[in-house]
Write a structure and sequence with these properties.
This protein is of the alpha+beta class. The protein has one domain. Helix content is 40%, strand content 27%.
């Protein structure tokens, strides 16, 4: 029995060391998985914020009739403070390209009283369809999103669809 004991000395230490190494590898793997997941979530958040900034720029752009007629114009890159924090702002640079008129048609039948009044005299309002593209870039990480949106705008009879290539 004494010979068996001498052969077994140190086996517990070796098994304990193997278990510690395996446990350490599992912990390192879990930490790596967590940090990768955190980076993925941060990238998705940056993309969502960039998309929201582009959408905000499009909504502001659409609200101005002058951006479409008589000459469609682009809006140069503007910084949008996405977190509305004046002490520690986080900016996205957003540029809106020149809107493209996709289609224009006379409004028959008229959809408003003003258009109906003109239609009686043979002057029709115009229903137009425009494509607007905004590109938003995160000024810190460089994440970029492009948002394309269609918008319908009604113009008065003076609108010249042919001049815009509609």
């Amino acid at each position: 029995m004494s010979a068996w004991r001498t052969r077994q000395q140190g086996v517990a230490l070796v098994i304990g060391m193997i278990m510690l190494v395996l446990l350490t590898l599992m912990v390192i793997s879990a930490i790596n998985s967590g940090s990768i997941g955190l980076r993925i979530a941060a990238n998705v958040q940056s993309q969502d914020e960039a998309r929201a900034a582009a959408q905000q720029a499009i909504e502001q752009f659409v609200s101005s009739y002058a951006n479409f007629y008589p000459t469609p114009t682009a809006k140069p890159a503007t910084n949008y403070n996405i977190n509305n924090d004046s002490t520690n702002p986080y900016y996205y640079s957003v540029a809106v390209s020149t809107p493209v008129c996709k289609r224009a048609s006379k409004q028959i039948p008229p959809k408003s009283t003003a258009c109906a009044t003109g239609a009686k005299a043979g002057l029709y309002c115009w229903d137009t369809l425009w494509e607007i593209v905004a590109t938003s870039t995160d000024t810190k990480s460089g994440v970029s999103q492009v948002v394309t949106q269609g918008v319908s705008i009604t113009f008065p009879p003076a609108f010249n669809a042919a001049a815009l290539g509609c």
